[in-house]
Sequence to fold (393 residues):
Amino acid sequence: MRRLLPLGLALLVLFECANVFFIMPLPGSQRTRNIDVAYALWSSRWVLRGIAAALMGLGLYGAWRTRWRPWKTMVPVALLASGLTWYINFRMAADQMFRQPTQVRLVPASASTVAPDRLVVGVEIDGEARAYPLQVIGYHHHLRDRIGDAEVLVTYCTVCRTGRVFSPFVNGELQQFRLVGMDQFNAMLEDVGTRSWWRQANGEAVIGPRTGTVLPEIPSRQVTLRRWVSMHPNSLVLEPDPAFADEYAKDYAYERGTSRKRLTGTDTASWAEKSWVVGISVRGVSRAYDWNHLERAQVINDELNGTPIVLALASDSLSFFVFERPDAATRFRVEHDSLVTGTGPDARRYAFSGHGAGGTLKALVASQEFWHSWRTFQPTTDQYPAPARPSAP
Fold:
């Protein structure tokens, strides 16, 4: 019976390591679908821990009965296992590594301490605008806020470079979420009520009682704070929480694409794992637009699933905009940070807000992402421009 003591310790250590391995971005853990294993381990964690504790207890009882004194060897191992359990659950747990802000404070742009050239996720609802800096939500991964009468869930995943804003209601009930980990390099949220896991990239519950449920997405834009305020002068800006001053990024490397870190760095070549793309879906048809091509062209007139669209890049080379064109014959160019169509007296000019003398262009939901993220969660996507095929030998 005393052999149950090392067996219980081995089970505990193996479980705790597996529990964190399958849900965190560790080498080899995110390349395949491991979410079923991760969810099963997480859901049965207390049962497995109880079994390990029972085995260790029986082993200690057997040792006492046979006058075996394992203290010199087993006590250090037990202490090590206990320390590992504490570290994994209280230091490596996603919601402990990336804690929620102690305060959500929004101020007028004139009072903001955020640098004007920092990127933000901007949201406007019923005339009320908010800007959420990437340097803040990139660390916290998600936060709840209220814009007018609307509750919003603002999310961001730095490993995918995806910013999404959702309505946090399911069946009319307001949901509370926590960061639980990662799946296929995308942040995973857990709702407090049913313990279902939700994918940040598209707001879909992918495992648990609410599997298949999708949070309604609220349109948002990723632009510089300066650009957002020029379009929305009365916008409020999320202030960095002083409690996390040391955690927020202190340079612009990630936002500017100059970082070369394994998880969050940018590839400079097109269509590499960490290359930037603009992803757009129109009625179920998806396309990825190469960021390098957009930088050179400044504007792309295209048609996606029968809808004429235009992509435009501002002069800051960071703020981008996607609109539906009035018709297939209307083609735009960029002049002085405006969209222009036609020439001479027939020329029509539109601001990047979409407003112009010819009316208002309809904004389309679009996201800047790493290529590996867009193609993973939009597996039927095509590419623009299509990569050149190698010539036959």
About this structure: The chain has ten helices and 27 strands. The CA atoms of residues 131 and 379 lie 31 Å apart. The chain has three domains: 4-92, 106-244, 276-384.
